[in-house]
């Protein structure tokens, strides 16, 4: 009996969502093809490389077709010590990464949208030097992944709005 009730609930939910005009973001025409047609232009350095790689994955960049758009990315990274021990040594660190971007339509050569995503991640300070380096690098990876996902949503929202016009 519970299977039938679950199936009925799922069916009813689908009908109600369809009736209210709900459309998933990636169901909009042109969103996925537009995202995959973006060439990412990330800055040099570890943070830039990580964000460029994460954006390439998040946007599902199609490397077999020529790009229609170029995403220029600027990364600003700052690290702050948080919490001090009795010996005046940091117990935690906080990394602030701000990723600014401009999406340029290559055919027109003009900026069609831009934005900025502030990301904050923390990590524990370590007694061992290599452990501290690993923790800092892990924080950079987490910040890059978070920034890439936020930018993907921003761009998908932009393209979904364009397809509705």
Keywords:
alpha+beta; 4 helices; four-stranded mixed sheet; Double Stranded RNA Binding Domain; single chain
Quick summary of this structure?
The chain is α+β, with helices and mostly antiparallel strands. It is built from four helices and four strands, in the order H-H-E-H-E-E-E-H.
Could you walk me through the main structural features you see in this protein, from its secondary elements to its overall organization?
It is a single chain. This protein has 165 residues and is an alpha+beta fold. The chain has a single domain, classed as Lipoprotein like domain (Double Stranded RNA Binding Domain). It is built from four helices and four strands; from the N terminus they run H-H-E-H-E-E-E-H. The chain has helices spanning 2-19, 31-36, 46-59, 129-164, and strands at residues 38-41, 69-84, 90-105, 110-124. Helix 3 crosses helix 4 (129-164). The termini are far apart. Residues 25-30 have low confidence and may be disordered.
β-strand amount: 25-35%
Query: Under the CATH scheme, which class?
Result: Alpha Beta
Structural class: alpha+beta
N→C terminal distance: 46 Å
In the residues, how many domains can be counted?
A: 1
* Shape annotation: globular
Rounded radius of gyration (Å): 21 Å
Tell me the CATH topology. Double Stranded RNA Binding Domain
CATH architecture assignment: 2-Layer Sandwich
């Amino acid at each position: 009996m519970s299977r039938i009730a679950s199936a009925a609930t799922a069916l009813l939910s689908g009908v109600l969502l369809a009736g209210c005009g709900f459309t998933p973001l990636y169901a909009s025409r042109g969103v996925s093809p537009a995202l995959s047609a973006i060439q990412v232009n990330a800055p040099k350095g570890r943070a830039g490389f990580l964000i460029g790689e994460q954006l390439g994955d998040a946007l599902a960049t199609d490397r077999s077709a020529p790009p229609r758009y170029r995403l220029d990315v600027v990364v600003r990274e700052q690290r702050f010590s948080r919490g001090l021990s009795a010996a005046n040594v940091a117990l935690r660190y906080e990394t602030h990464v701000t990723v600014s971007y401009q999406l340029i339509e290559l055919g027109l050569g003009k900026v069609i949208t831009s934005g900025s995503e502030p990301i904050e991640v923390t990590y524990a300070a370590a007694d061992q030097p290599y452990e501290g380096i690993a923790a800092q690098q892990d924080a950079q990876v987490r910040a890059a992944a978070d920034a890439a996902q936020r930018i993907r949503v921003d761009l998908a929202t932009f393209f979904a709005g364009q397809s509705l016009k």
